[in-house]
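The pair is quoted verbatim underneath.

:::
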Amino acid sequence: MIDTSTETQRNVTALWERYRDTASIEVREQLILHYAPLVKYVAGRVAVGMPANVEHADLVSYGIFGLMDAIEKFDLDKGFKFETYAVTRIRGAIIDELRSVDWVPRSVRARARKLEAAVQKLESDLHRSPSEEEIAAELDWTVAELQDALTRISMTSMAALDEVLDIGEGDRLTLVDTLQDLSVELPEDSYDSVETKDLLRATLGRLTDREQMVLGLYYYEGMTLAQIGDVLGVTESRICQIHTKAVMSLRAKLSDKL
């Protein structure tokens, strides 16, 4: 990861000050080199569950454009931590490029839309996160068919909490970045996203305990799906299914409100 030694941080701060004052291309290139490990980290997180034909090197190259955008738009004088701010831009650039390629099979995309519509309907009718049995009944599927669909969707799409929301004036926010972490002052707090954050925090409480635990371990603790499976005593495939259902429920709730 990024070198965080005191001397290095002093040098990086000096680079930021020079870039703020001069907008030098040479200084920007030095900042890009310094933060390149951050792009590799984000690309690695996005790559979880991707098909084998999606190359990690391609994700990194997409992410570099997000890093460049973050460097150009970052306001040093606001006192925010750049790494936290840049993650959203890097992840957004990777996802945007993958969507433009549109490599997801049509059949899987169609099933995802059908499943998401069913979850949204049940969320509205039940005022809670529906069970797998309820979703399967709504779709006239068996539970096994539902779980198979969840697995296929999870293996051919972005982690759904990386969904990019348009919050106006050209700025974007992902669902995962709206989750509250009291130990970090998020740069996004300076943007017009308070309503979205409050809404998401309220809807998280309506997920099952297991769904909340999976999201927390994956997005906050940085655990892999396999590690979470070990903690909960289930398979990695089952964790994929729980994760996909949880984020579909979140998106269904947000679709009703936004």
About this structure: The radius of gyration is 20 Å.
